[in-house]
Amino acid sequence: MSRSHLTAGGALLLAVVLYISAATQEAEAAYQFPRLLAICMIIIALGMLIAAWRRMPEGGHTAATNISWDKLWPAFAVLVIYLGIMEFVGFYISSLVVFFVLSTLYGPRLDLAPARLTRLVGTALAFMGVLYVIFAVFLRVQTPRGLLF
Amino acid sequence: MDFIQYFPQVLTPENLFVLIAGTVGGLLLGAVPGLSPTMAVALLIPFTFHMEPAPGLILLGALYTSTVAGGAISAILINIPGAPANVATGLDGHPMARQGRAKEALHYCFISSFIGGVIGIVVLILFTPLLAELALRFGFSEMFWIAILGVTVIGTLASGSVLKGLFAGVVGLWLSTIGYSPVLGEARFHFSEHLTGGINIVAALIGLFAIPQVLSMLENAGATGGQMYALEKHSLWASIKTTLKRVRALTVGTVTGAIVGIVPGAGGQIAALLAYDQTRKLSPHPERFGKGDPDGVICAESANNAMVGPSLIPLLTLSVPGSPTAAVLLGGLLIHGLFPGQDLFTIHAKVTWTFIDSLLLGQLLMLIFGLYISGFARFVMRVPNYFMAAAITVLAVFGTYSIQNSYSDVLVMMVLGISMYFGGKFGFSPAPVVLGIILGPIAETNYLQGKLIAESSDGLVPYFFTGTINLIVISLCVISIGYSIYSELKASWRRRQAA
């Protein structure tokens, strides 16, 4: 089964789930439009399945590409932790840490030499400093403060 | 003449400062490969929320205009387009740089962008009030079909696959139904406490455009840019004279850009590539294209800037954006409480015409600053992907939180963004999803209200499927789907023949 079949099958499954979630609600009138949309999605997904079965090749940027899990799992972990600690630690401190961690993990090589680490910390501090001046001082945008800052 | 009456508003210190900052910032951001105009505008929308409507829109408009022009800098110097709209520019711009004519190419780029951009804004000024008056004749059924047209066109033209584009558009429409029914007020799809307020448009914009780009940058964090060529000395006056003599390239580029701009969903990439193709076919020396012919740079850049003004015509009058970036600008209008239609030119005339006039002045500033900061942009282009990704992540979270001081918005933004990243790997595009989320409430409200009227009169089918405007809009939907399917089938048949 090719990637096109999987994509079309996944789209059909999603459309059916959305239809069921809209069709099984008590307030029928409020779910009229979502049900209509889910039916449209089912029709389009069936069209995708037919196109996949007829083996119509995909060109250009719609062709499915592989996911580099080994490169990206640290990024996903960092994003999840960022969301988890932001409200407890505070926006600026957590953002500073995330900026530093992402720059270190995805730099040209995982190099923990003091000179490079100092440069990365300095860049992170400079970036957050500029953000603070523009948004907290000039635009007065509120951010989660948490325990720290 | 409203555009003359409100022009002095652009020259107030606050508005002028914002216009200059937006132009310079846009040129530098546009030069960074991977930071598209759409993403740059999406990231900055939350911050304009804290500004008055006029300077906020001026900033977004300046960014829209100058990021498109700035993207040509990296296309010419390192053969990596800063935006999809600059792909055609690099076809002749980079060969010119390899021949030691980088500065000459940049001159042609900004001069032709200026000429195309000014003509595009003039088209915007002339046609927008006319279409705004026509929009008064639109009832519930007409507005419903206009919303569907917007999703249909951007789904078919801005995506490579018709079916995936349409599916993404309908998913966007469905996402807009989360929260509360706009007519009946019933709660819907409250799967989590974070969804009780529905999906905030700006959070969705940022998540769908910025987060997938962050993940792509981190995937390619180790990649290095191509060789960068130095800037030689070249007379600006000679470049101006040469550009003005290339009448064919300028005309084809500008006219193509203006027409493509009005077509909902098309965008700068289509305008530039179409103009490039037509100019090459009409040239007495087509064999010179791709080898450093100035006509290649001039037609592409005049087209992608001439597209900017007309892409705002259907946006400001009918809520149907003329390009993916204009779709994001619609979000910027809505958060300032400005709804497309006749009201923009009556109740909010001052803000609207100040914004339009700023686009005109912005073309001149883009020319002046573009010519002189191209050299500095070389340093910005060398910022490593991992720094850009980290910076965009922080800006995305910051911007999303600042809309409503809501952590739920940040969560929704991140979930949508990661989902879109995976969707992109399976060939789905974010632009139709975004437009679906924006136009969903318009489509649903007009559908339900139209249905109420239809049920008490002639019935659903006569109400929604008869009437001149309804039939024209439905025909446009069918034509855009039909044409895109035909193009795909033709391309598929050609690939099979070649194989």
- The overall average pLDDT of chain B, rounded, is 86
- Supply the number of helical segments of chain B: 23
Whole-number radius of gyration of chain B?
A: 22 Å
Strand content of chain B: under 5%
The chain pair with the largest interface is:
A-B, 69 and 61 residues
Q: Work out the oligomeric state of the chains in this entry.
A: heterodimer
Order of helical and strand elements of chain A = HHHHH
Description:
The complex is a heterodimer of chains A (149) and B (499). The radius of gyration of chain A is 23 Å and the shape is flat. Chain A has helices at residues 3-23, 32-53, 69-89, 91-105, 114-138. With 149 residues, chain A is mainly α. Chain B is mainly α. Chain B has helices spanning 2-5, 7-10, 13-31, 37-48, 53-78, 87-98, 102-134, 140-157, 162-175, 201-219, 236-245, 247-262, 268-282, 294-306, 308-311, 313-318, 324-335, 349-381, 385-404, 407-425, 430-455, 460-465, 468-498, and strands at 179-180, 187-188. Chain B contains 23 helices and 2 strands. Helices cover 75% and strands 1% of the residues of chain B. The chains are: A mainly alpha (149), B mainly alpha (499). Chains A and B meet through helix 1, helix 2, helix 3, helix 4 and helix 5 of A and helix 9, helix 10, helix 19, helix 20 and helix 21 of B.
List descriptors.
heterodimer, A: 70% helix, 0% strand, B: 499 residues, mainly alpha, two-stranded antiparallel ribbon
In brief, what are we looking at here?
The complex is a heterodimer of chains A (149) and B (499). By secondary structure, chain A is mainly alpha-helical.
Q: Which helices and strands occur, and which strands form pairs?
A:
The complex is a heterodimer of chains A (about 150) and B (about 500).
Chain A: H1 3-23, H2 32-53, H3 69-89, H4 91-105, H5 114-138
Chain B: H1 2-5, H2 7-10, H3 13-31, H4 37-48, H5 53-78, H6 87-98, H7 102-134, H8 140-157, H9 162-175, E1 179-180, E2 187-188, H10 201-219, H11 236-245, H12 247-262, H13 268-282, H14 294-306, H15 308-311, H16 313-318, H17 324-335, H18 349-381, H19 385-404, H20 407-425, H21 430-455, H22 460-465, H23 468-498
Antiparallel strand pairs in B: 1-2
Helix pairs in contact in B: 3-5, 3-18, 4-5, 4-10, 4-17, 4-19, 5-6, 5-7, 5-17, 5-18, 6-7, 6-14, 7-11, 7-12, 7-14, 7-18, 8-9, 8-21, 8-23, 9-21, 10-19, 10-20, 10-21, 12-13, 12-14, 13-14, 17-21, 19-20
